[in-house]
Design a protein that fits this description.
Largest sheet: 6 strands, mixed
Number of strands: 15
Radius of gyration: 21 Å
Structural class: alpha/beta
Strand order of the largest sheet: 10-9-8-11-15-14
C-alpha cells in the first residue's frame, strides 16, 4: 500500500479534490472518496483538511482518504478547517450591515483562534464610520471599494488560508475575482425588491492565491453557523471582545458581568458594548435552559 499527504481544496457530493505538492511549488490534484470508517466515526473530511491518501492498487490508480490530521480550528457551517483568518466583507450601502450579526461572528472566530479581518466594499460616510469603529477595536481593516486597489489585502493574505464571509450581495465573489485573476466566477446583482443579494456561491472551494495561500468564497451570513451555545460560557464572552479584554478584572466589584453594574469599567454605551451585552444574554439564556 502506498500513501501520500495533501490538502482538501474542494468537496462536492462525497468526492474530495486533494492538492498534492509535487515540489518546486507545483501542485497536482487528485479527486477521490473517503474511507467508509469516517461515516462510522461520524467524521467527514472538509475543505482545508490535511489528509493522507492511501492506495492499495499496484499502479496507484485509485486513492482514498485514509486519515485526517488534527485540525487547528474548524467551522461547521460552512465546513472549513485550518483557517488563519476570515475576511468579513461589509457593505455600508446594500445590504445594510447588522452590527450584532457581525460581532457574533467575530466572537465565534476569536474563540476558535481565527483572526477576523474586515474589508469594506462600497465606500460612503457610514462605511468610514464602521471602518473606524472596527479599527479602533483592534481589527485589521481594508478598503476594497470599486475605486481602490487590493494590493494591501493581497500582501496581508500572502501565505495564509482565508475565507470570505459576509451578507449575500456585499461583493464577496466580485472581490474574489479581483484577488484571483482569471477566476471569473459568476456574480449576481442586488435584488431591489428584497434588498439583498442573490446567492451565487453553492460550494466551498479553496482557490490558490497568486503569491501563495488559499482563499475560499462562502455562502452568505444566512448559511454561516453562528450558534453560540456550547462554544463558550457566558462569563467568557468578554474575552472575545478584544478592546474589552484588557479591562477584565479592573471593575470595582468582583464577579462583575459588565452589564451596567455599579463600578463597571466597561463603556456605558456604543455599538460594540451593545453587542457584548446581547451576546452575553443570549449565551446566558441558553445556559439556563440546559
Amino acid at each position: 500500500m502506498s500513501s501520500m499527504t495533501g490538502r482538501v481544496i474542494a468537496s462536492v457530493a462525497g468526492r474530495y479534490t486533494v492538492a498534492i505538492q509535487n515540489g518546486g511549488g507545483h501542485e497536482r490534484e487528485i479527486v477521490c472518496k473517503a474511507k467508509g470508517l469516517f461515516r462510522l466515526k461520524k467524521v467527514s473530511p472538509c475543505v482545508g483538511d490535511y489528509v493522507t491518501l492511501e492506495s492499495e492498487e499496484s499502479d496507484n490508480s485509485e486513492y482514498v482518504i485514509g486519515d485526517i490530521s488534527p485540525r487547528r480550528n474548524h467551522l461547521v457551517r460552512p465546513p472549513l478547517a485550518n483557517l488563519d483568518c476570515v475576511v468579513i466583507v461589509v457593505s455600508a450601502c446594500e445590504p445594510k450591515p447588522n452590527a450584532l450579526v457581525i460581532d457574533r461572528l467575530t466572537v465565534i472566530l476569536e474563540s476558535k483562534g481565527i483572526e477576523p479581518v474586515f474589508v469594506f466594499t462600497k465606500a460612503d460616510k457610514r462605511e468610514v464610520e464602521l471602518a473606524d469603529l472596527y479599527a479602533a477595536a483592534g481589527f485589521v481593516c481594508f478598503d476594497c471599494s470599486a475605486n481602490s486597489d487590493t494590493d494591501s489585502l493581497c500582501a496581508f493574505l500572502r501565505g495564509k488560508t482565508a475565507a470570505l464571509i459576509g451578507n449575500t450581495g456585499v461583493g464577496k465573489t466580485t472581490l474574489l475575482n479581483r484577488l484571483v485573476p482569471g477566476l471569473e466566477l459568476p456574480t449576481a446583482e442586488i435584488s431591489r425588491k428584497l434588498g439583498r443579494g442573490k446567492h451565487t456561491t453553492r460550494t466551498v472551494v479553496l482557490h490558490t492565491l497568486p503569491d501563495s495561500g488559499y482563499l475560499a468564497d462562502t455562502p452568505g451570513f444566512s448559511t454561516v453557523d453562528t450558534k453560540l451555545h456550547g462554544e463558550f460560557a457566558a462569563d467568557d464572552v468578554a474575552l472575545y471582545f478584544r478592546e474589552f479584554k484588557p479591562l477584565i478584572g479592573k471593575c470595582k466589584f468582583g464577579g462583575c458581568t459588565h452589564n451596567g453594574e455599579e463600578g463597571c469599567v466597561f463603556p456605558e454605551n456604543g455599538s460594540r458594548v451593545d453587542s457584548f451585552r446581547a451576546i452575553y444574554a443570549e449565551v446566558k439564556r441558553a445556559e439556563n435552559e440546559w
